[in-house]
């Protein structure tokens, strides 16, 4: 039976600084590296043997995957990187301190930007350094697909086609797969897999560096079981569909 491990990157520098990050390419902290290494240890202990892996194009996820695969002694498996697995784009909030942003705009407004399903934050200007059109790694992505800001819904809209066309077919073949990505892109996958409602998905949290191991039936979509491997840092999971 196929297995799927969803791995949120370890703690990043801006997680630690309480700043909105999104598509900004910040690195892991020392704690984040330790979490990533622990991810590999936990998956190895669970007998997880991925045959391929997928990751965003942001270094905090890439390094997390590398440390995880190193712990599994599986650095040799095929790895595909895609911008479609990037974190949600936080637009003009990127780089801002979350507490200072609440003080400026009000807690209610910031909660809407952070927690509503379909309301994105203010967009970043096209000439801003944080607009993806000004980043070489997205040079081959059609400009009209590059976001200036995203809600969770818009994040889901870009993740779902990649899931359907690139990842799901391999699960349906019975392959075991690891995906290293981000809180919101992984929430999008959890929404698809667990068939979570629009309101309910906003309450789902994905802890950093704690693999969510999902046992799947032969169809690659029916969940037989799911668990966080570090029980001390586990978050509640949606009910099985």
Tell me about this structure.
35% of the residues lie in helices and 12% in strands. With 241 residues, the chain is an alpha/beta fold. It has a single domain, classed as Phosphoglycerate mutase-like (Rossmann fold), CATH 3.40.50.1240. A 6-stranded mixed beta sheet has the order 3-2-4-1-5-6. Strand 2 (52-55), helix 3 and strand 3 (79-81) form a beta-alpha-beta unit. Helix 2 (30-45) packs parallel to helix 3 (59-72) and helix 4 (98-105) packs across helix 5 (107-115). The chain is globular and about 50 Å long. It starts with a strand and ends in a 13-residue tail after the last strand. The mean pLDDT is 96. It catalyses: (2R)-2-phosphoglycerate = (2R)-3-phosphoglycerate. One of its GO terms (biological process) is glycolytic process. Pathway: Carbohydrate degradation; glycolysis; pyruvate from D-glyceraldehyde 3-phosphate: step 3/5. It holds the Pfam family His_Phos_1. InterPro entries: His_Pase_superF_clade-1 (IPR013078), His_PPase_superfam (IPR029033), PG/BPGM_mutase_AS (IPR001345), Phosphogly_mut1 (IPR005952).
The secondary-structure element order is EHHEHEHHHEHEE
What is the CATH topology?
Rossmann fold
Quote the beta fraction. 5-15%
Overall CATH architecture: 3-Layer(aba) Sandwich
CATH homologous superfamily descriptor: Phosphoglycerate mutase-like
The parts where pLDDT drops under 50 for at least 5 residues are none
The assigned structural class equals alpha/beta
Distance between the termini: 18 Å
Global mean pLDDT = 96
Organism: Maricaulis virginensis
Enzyme class: isomerase
Binding site for substrate: 8-15, 21-22, 60, 87-90, 98, 114-115, 183-184
Site (Transition state stabilizer): 182
